[in-house]
């Protein structure tokens, strides 16, 4: 009996296999190609970005198809992983794809370096790839490799390709790089600067003597010192600013780099000009908010407004300042975004402060003039501005609908206020209402 059952089962499996084979044979090459494409598309839709959000939606896929980008190529790029997640967030994935980025380029990076960089690094390397000819960064990286820590071990793990993002075409003075790396040390006898901040500092004309003059009196990070040098800050003037404002050195450095380098600029004076409040998130790990572009933006606003600049770690900081300044006609908030929010303090889970389109923003908006303009300069999505506008009581809201750098911010008009945001030359401004 068992033999009969086994024979019947085998026959059934054979018939099923033959039927499947016949069906496959009956498929046209075009049908088979469609089935394969659908399978790849399903796999692409299933991939999450590093924030566990779907990397693409149906609209993205349709847009990519119209531009002739194959699903297989999209899948190859989306499948590049770091820590078991796609290295890309949705906004940077779109920017890389629409900017012509390829999977072959990413392969060339990872092959030569042995590691996968961040999505922002991949995007910037791709954008700047043609500018990197003529740089002596490989020689700089080799020199840094010779520098030892306090225990005699190699200190720097420097990859010249990644460092080349901001310094393509620059010929560094090797002796100056060596002098700063070996002449500015932490309490353990290790080089104070890391590879990237070292090159930023040297590129700005920094020397070991300059760095040590600051470090004799103030506790500053390598990033803060590099930023201060880029702003050509004078140590004596900085010392006076710290003493007059009572700020800690780290916060004072942030203000100083933004061009708020005296009590006159730090304090608010109400004249016959309209009033403006511009806030910068305290969380700025890569110094993206502290540069010459931001200083010029603030100087431009100062032409037409009585301006107050604040560094914020919470929404309460904005709320309190709004309550202290009457009839604010312009509110600007700058920070690092994550689609629908701005991170203000970079705190741990449970202690992180965000700006989101929620009811906590209403008291802030109500403290502004009814005809005030509001802008959010950060990497955001389109619905952020629309959701904020729904809370703003008819006040005009501007925000970026995509990834943004300081160089992508353009003030079109001061009074009435108009601002535009650009990414790779494309206008990504979202205005509401």
Describe this structure in words.
- By secondary structure, the protein is of the alpha/beta class.
- The protein has 3 domains: 35-117, no CATH class; 137-230, no CATH class; 268-432, Rossmann fold.
- 47% of the residues lie in helices and 13% in strands.
- It contains 20 helices and 14 strands.
- The protein has helices at residues 2-26, 29-46, 58-66, 71-78, 90-98, 103-113, 119-127, 137-145, 160-167, 174-183, 195-203, 208-215, 222-230, 235-245, 249-257, 263-266, 292-304, 315-324, 362-366, 382-391; strands spanning 81-82, 85-86, 275-281, 306-312, 328-334, 336-337, 342-343, 354-355, 373-377, 396-400, 409-413, 418-423, 426-427, 429-432.
- The strands form 4 sheets. A 6-stranded mixed beta sheet has the order 4-3-5-9-10-14, sandwiched between helices.
- A hairpin with a 2-residue loop joins strand 1 and strand 2.
- The longest helix has 25 residues, at 2-26.
- It starts with a helix and ends with a strand.
How do the helices and strands line up, and which of them pair or pack?
Layout: H1 2-26, H2 29-46, H3 58-66, H4 71-78, E1 81-82, E2 85-86, H5 90-98, H6 103-113, H7 119-127, H8 137-145, H9 160-167, H10 174-183, H11 195-203, H12 208-215, H13 222-230, H14 235-245, H15 249-257, H16 263-266, E3 275-281, H17 292-304, E4 306-312, H18 315-324, E5 328-334, E6 336-337, E7 342-343, E8 354-355, H19 362-366, E9 373-377, H20 382-391, E10 396-400, E11 409-413, E12 418-423, E13 426-427, E14 429-432
Parallel strand pairs: 3-4, 3-5, 5-9, 9-10
Antiparallel strand pairs: 1-2, 6-7, 7-8, 10-14, 11-12, 12-13
């Amino acid at each position: 009996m068992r033999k009969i059952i086994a024979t019947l089962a085998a026959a059934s499996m054979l018939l099923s296999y033959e039927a499947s084979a016949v069906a496959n044979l009956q498929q046209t090459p075009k049908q088979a190609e469609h089935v394969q494409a659908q399978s790849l598309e399903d796999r692409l839709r299933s991939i999450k970005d590093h924030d566990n959000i779907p990397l693409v939606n149906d609209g993205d896929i349709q847009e990519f198809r119209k531009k002739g980008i194959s699903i297989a190529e999209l899948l190859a790029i989306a499948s590049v992983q770091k820590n078991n997640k796609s290295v890309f967030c949705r906004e940077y994935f779109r920017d890389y794809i629409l900017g012509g980025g390829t999977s072959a380029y990413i392969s060339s990076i990872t092959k030569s370096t042995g590691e996968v960089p961040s999505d922002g690094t991949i995007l910037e390397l791709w954008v700047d790839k043609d500018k990197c000819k003529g740089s002596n960064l490989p020689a700089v990286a080799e020199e840094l490799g010779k520098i030892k820590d306090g225990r005699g071990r190699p200190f720097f793990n420097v990859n010249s390709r990644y460092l080349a993002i901001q310094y393509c075409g620059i010929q560094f003075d090797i002796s100056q790089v060596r002098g700063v790396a070996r002449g500015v040390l932490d309490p353990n006898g290790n080089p104070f600067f890391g590879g990237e901040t070292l090159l930023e500092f040297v590129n700005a004309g920094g020397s070991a003597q300059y760095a040590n003059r600051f470090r004799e009196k103030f506790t500053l990070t390598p990033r803060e010192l590099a930023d201060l040098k880029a702003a050509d800050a004078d140590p004596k003037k900085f010392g006076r600013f710290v003493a007059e404002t009572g700020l800690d050195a780290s916060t004072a450095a942030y203000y100083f780099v933004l061009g708020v380098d005296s009590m006159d600029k730090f304090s608010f004076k109400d004249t016959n000009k309209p009033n403006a409040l511009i806030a910068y998130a305290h969380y700025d790990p890569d110094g993206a908010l502290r540069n010459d572009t931001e200083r010029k933006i603030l100087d431009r606003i100062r032409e037409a407004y009585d301006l107050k600049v604040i560094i914020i770690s919470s929404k309460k900081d904005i709320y309190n300042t709004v309550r202290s300044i009457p009839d604010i006609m312009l509110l600007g908030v700058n920070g690092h975004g994550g689609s629908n929010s701005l991170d203000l303090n970079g705190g741990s889970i449970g202690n992180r402060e965000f700006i989101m389109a929620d009811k906590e923003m209403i008291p802030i908006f109500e403290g502004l003039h009814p005809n005030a303009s509001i802008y959010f300069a950060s990497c955001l999505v389109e619905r952020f501005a629309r959701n904020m506008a729904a809370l703003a009581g008819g006040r005009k809201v501007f925000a970026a609908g995509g990834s943004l750098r300081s160089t992508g911010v353009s003030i079109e008009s001061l009074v009435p206020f108009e601002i535009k945001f650009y990414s790779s030359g494309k206008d990504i401004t979202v205005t509401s209402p």
